[in-house]
Amino acid sequence: MPSILSIPIIIGAAVLPALILIYYIYRRDTAKEPVPQLIAGFGFGVLSALVAIFFDGVIMGTGLPITGTPTTVIDALSTAFIGAGIPEELAKLLMLWLLLRNNRHFDQYFDGVVYAVSIGMGFAAIENVSYLFTNIDDWMNVAAMRAVISVPGHFSFAVLMGYFYSLIHIGGQNTIRNRVLVIAAPVLAHGAFDSVLFMSSLNPWLALLCMVMFVALCVWLIKECRRNIRILREYDSMPPLPPQLPPPLPPMPPQQFINNRY
Length: 262
Prior knowledge:
The protein is mainly alpha-helical. It has helices at residues 6-28, 35-61, 73-100, 109-134, 139-148, 150-169, 176-199, 204-237, 254-261.
């Protein structure tokens, strides 16, 4: 049982990595979002963990095969996608919509990423707190592992979600493709991320293959996140389009021109 003095340290170790990544994306924003809005996003992210638990309960009520400790590749895939990726990313997307609907501060492309990351980091922080207190005897090792794996994972899923959310709501690119990818991209990335981690514990040979797959996935996520951030920043730096002028009036017939003069 942790002492009263160690509880703030454990909570700080759980929350600090998430705050660092929020600060990172905040610094990348050319037109800074109000700090109270980021705090609200972080709070919405904490609430999204509760919503994810509700969604997870609904999914489990359908009888889909979800196991707490995967023992086969099928178990790992179903737990990663159905038990984690779908309910968690759906909850984050719902919170993102609630935060940004009719929000006057959401007025640039990059804002979608900033707010999605704030929500994702709120989720990651409260999830970290839960894991650290569940593994209280080994909380320092758990905190270190989650700081370099799980929290950056949630960051990358949030960047993917925020990218497509901005294309839809700021860029006017409300296509079927973008509406699907705003949830499919983070769910697929999240599911693949967790699947590789779950499968690595099944047997030593599979663990070696999963390590290679995990490194490749992380490299792809880093490149994709950097690409998405660069594209949105470029969109925001473009000058606004000039206002549309009305089309010129057609010339009047000669007889009508004479009649109008006299």
